[in-house]
């Protein structure tokens, strides 16, 4: 008995082969995505259409239309003006940025202000101690007198007061280590001018600098005139 397939079976086999070839070549995953709004054709529908065409039946392929998603955000504070809408959007972003801080905590205004650091108070000057002669040497050195100028100052004030804080000239009334005349002139260096040797020395150095320039110049004048 011959095993020759019927003509309808041959056609059916040929059609199935064509469908399988189409799936392998085109593939569902290889199909290019349809643009928004365009119909999308299912490959299985195409295969069904081909088989139906062989059986002279009319099959309408199924199509699926992808909806277009449109998201519209309306800002209540925006106006029809584009620039106003842009400004409102920027303002909203800035507000969200401030509100979304660390742990959603509000930043206090004081933290945003520039910190003003008060300058540290200057340490009080250490009191100069010692004998009036030692204090005079310390003050003169701090004022910038070198050794040569100090030697001249030492000789000058040894002749005037021997570095005694309460030395007074009976004839003129000159007073103190530098023998200020009148004595109250030393008040410009400090209110304790009567008893504080450092205050008297500071005034005496200022007087010599203004009148003679240097202690050696004052000493030279004293040697000629016996006063300065």
Number of helices: 8
Percent range for β-strand residues: under 5%
Over the alpha carbons, how many angstroms does the gyration radius reach?
Answer: 55 Å
SSE arrangement, N to C: HEHEHHHHHH
How far do the termini sit from each other? 159 Å
Return the structural class: mainly alpha
Low-confidence stretches: 1-16, 18-25, 27-41, 53-64, 66-81, 95-105
Main pleated-sheet profile: 2 strands, antiparallel
Brief write-up:
With 228 residues, this protein is an all-alpha fold. It is 46% helix and 3% strand.
What does this structure look like?
It is a single chain. By secondary structure, this protein is mostly helical. Among the domains are: 7-62, no CATH class; 132-225, no CATH class. Helices cover 46% and strands 3% of the residues. The chain has eight helices and two strands. The chain has helices at residues 7-25, 43-54, 82-99, 109-112, 132-142, 147-160, 197-211, 215-225; strands at residues 39-41, 63-65. Strands 1-2 form a two-stranded antiparallel sheet. Helix 1 (7-25) runs antiparallel to helix 2. The longest helix is centred in the first third of the chain and has 19 residues, at 7-25. The N and C termini lie far apart (159 Å). 15% of the residues are buried. Residues 1-16, 18-25, 27-41, 53-64, 66-81 and 95-105 have low confidence and may be disordered.
